[in-house]
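Anyone? Bumping this.
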Amino acid sequence: MAFIPHTPDDIARMLEVIGARSVEDLFDEIPAELRAGVLNVPAPLSEMEIARLMTERAAIDGRPLNFIGAGAYEHHIPAPVWAIATRGEFYSAYTPYQAEASQGTLQLIYEYQSMMCALTGMEVSNASLYDGASALAEACLMAVRSNRGSSSRRILMPRTVNPTYAQVAQAIAGNQDISFVPVDFDRTAGRTLLDALKPHGGQDFTALVVQQPNFFGSLEEVDALTDWAHENKIMLIAVVNPTSLALLKPPGEWGAVIGGARGADIVCGEGQALGVPLSSGGPYFGFMATRMHYVRQMPGRIVGGTVDMEGRPGFTLTLQAREQHIRRSKATSNICTNQGLMVTAATIYMSLLGPRGLEAVAQASMQRTHDLVSALSKVPGVKRAFTAPHFHEAVLLLDRPPAAILAALSRRGILGGLDLSERYPELGHAMLVCATETKFDADIDAYASALADVMSASRAAA
Amino acid sequence: MQLKTREPLIFDLSKPGRGAVTQFPPPVAGTAQVPANLRRQNRPALPEVSELQAVRHFTRLSQMNFSIDTHFYPLGSCTMKYNPKACNTYAMLPEFLGRHPLGPEPQGFLACMYELQEMLQEITGMPAVSLTPMAGAQGEFAGVAMIRAYHRARNDTARTEIIVPQAAHGTNPATATMCGFVVKEIPCDANGDVEIDALKAAVGPATAGIMLTNPSTLGVFERKIVQIARIVHEAGGLLYYDGANLNAILGKVRPGDMGFDVIHMNLHKTFSTPHGGGGPGSGAVGVSARLKPFLPLPIVGKEGARYRWLTERDLPQSIGRLSGFMGNAGVNLRAYIYMRLLGREGMVRVAEFAALNANYLMKRLQALGFEAAYPKRRASHEFIITLKQEQKAYHVSAMDVAKRLLDYGFHAPTTYFPLLVPECLLIEPTETEAKEDLDRFCDALASIREEMQHDAEKLTSAPHTMPVRRLDDVRAAKQLDLHWKGLLEEPAGA
């Protein structure tokens, strides 16, 4: 029997202790009229058969050369990361409620929190949320709880923020009557227009969201945006890419000192780039950091250092009075299970790369994307959309709809980018491309030459 | 085996200039630069260690954990069953791991997801399933948000209340609040069933729905479920099924047949995806036909032989998206593999042997003198022991017993949940444990029972054999220490 160790003799002796004639007797409290018939699901497979099935299904999907980013990034993952993260002691452990029997997981999360504080320049990090998009939703809810000077429940959401993140924030926070006001972007530069914010000055808004680098890969003028928000008593929620923080000014240092404080108020984002595979979109992990001042409004688990009864240092879950299992309907969030194993991978990843390795990854990714944009822009009918400096993504404009071009590239084994024409129709035939340190000169050349072929074939067919 | 000593912080192993340099990308020539005003001034204080130092450090940390692979882990309501290695190995095939979520629709992966949806529909008796919620609590959120959307679509905006029995998980009331509802709690009777009179008094034109777990968190099957469903439906409300305890009834009774309108499943419980030290989970939702238009996106659809993602165009009334892409795809893949390994016969055995193990353990512990909270009832896949007598007689708490069990090499059961039962241990052995392991667990509790009578201090000062003794939680909450102290020092400079 699959994964069941009982022998007929075991079963007989156990039933005798229970005082039941059969296993079926154990279900005699379920009303007879409710009992299920035989389930219509497939017969069991052996491991050998499932191995064959999964290998065949994986082969259908193949291994294309990928130039899509848009919130999920292909980076090199060091071999030790998943060799250790899938050790049974990490993989098959529960949330560390019994602290004394979970010091490994707890210390690891404490180290993770420290690393996220170092990257973001913030004072406190939680132990993770589900993913980047839902982390932004939680950040919006947290801002509404934290910004005591605001009662509007209105949040400024620039159109340069990942549109899916904006949708998720609406789906999750919208149920609590929080509304989102879009902010337009500069069509030439590809970043948020400060002039589009100015009419909102002096009004009651809870928070302004700023994504750096933004969805187009462009770098926002974060200092000016942060200062504008703080001058108007609006909290600043930063959505950041953790890899980029090895090179970019950390959100904790954005803007000037206003009202005794500096930088973003809440920082969140997608942690996948830190050692987590693309894996069709998940599992990834969301991160969140803030200033100590707001720690009691932060959702999710937090690990703290303490001492045991002999005074020896140790780690435990702390500030649990914020959480659902204590506060029930008054909790900061309903979240309990988060993305612990992904945090394990990310902590090992950050330890292996260190500050210099992560900087090298960020620098190489940025350089490769610049090389890619320059190679693709030489193809007739292709040009860069925006002038703002960019990190490891950029928007390209084609002289024809990207859908057919991307489909043709896909048939040649290249995922050429993300078609933006539905998300941003005003940009015309736009697509978002990305390269990371995993792309070599030969990969970029292969893409450029395939694009030239496909574009010219498309022109010939027209 | 378990490491009994402490391990320094990774930061304490760090030295400037050290690094796992084979992991660094080769330098790329070029002139790309971040403008000076947007550039970082000082390198982040990440550790600088060799590859071996990192490998040894994290391996040693892993050895300070209890886990299913190393210990019996009867944590009630968490379903800590064996996580088959095949599920991980075949979900981590390079083609699955390397797949970008926004590429062309991957037919091999989507075939697995479509079949997973179909199997979950059949098992729960619900006509439609979405795999997108990323954990049980997000599945709950999706479920309650669908109830809200359903009433609003009918212009029935007066329904502002969600009824939750006292025995419910804390996530239930927290979720109802997140969805903008007012929570109304109702009591359970002495046998663990919902008090019907209290329910009748609670329902009315303001009732949006009720959230129920069945078997309940008290470890017993809610026998009046059909009556409850009728009362709530007649009042115009919908029934939400919290699938935390689905392991108890797999293949025996289906939530759809009990009258539920919406259900979330914890794939990391019933379908054995790993708990990972606190996630990732996966909280798929199933719904009755009338809630189908509101399902969260994306969902996998099939047209002819081709699979595709259903989007806002297909379900314009959807409650929307809850994740950046399509939920915890890799977790869903593990659940799919597990379900195919179990198959039709294996599914039913899950409930049967989970119930056999729980009922056996309950009877044996009763024989040792422990008091079951609901002695007249069958255990479901779990049961509750209350230590209120022992506390009175020997001044030991449920927490003391839990901590002492660690010394005996067993993970503790869930303590102090549900809140209704004083000094309780919620014990869930799961179907994958052998009788010998259950017997050893009974031996340990028998021995602890002896100790509490003659040497209670052994319990109250436990654990004695872990890397740390009992920790000061009050200090942790009052003198917050949430990151490495070195972060506060002046950075070394770029």
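Late reply, but here is one note on the structure posted above: DSSP finds 13 helices and 15 strands in chain A.
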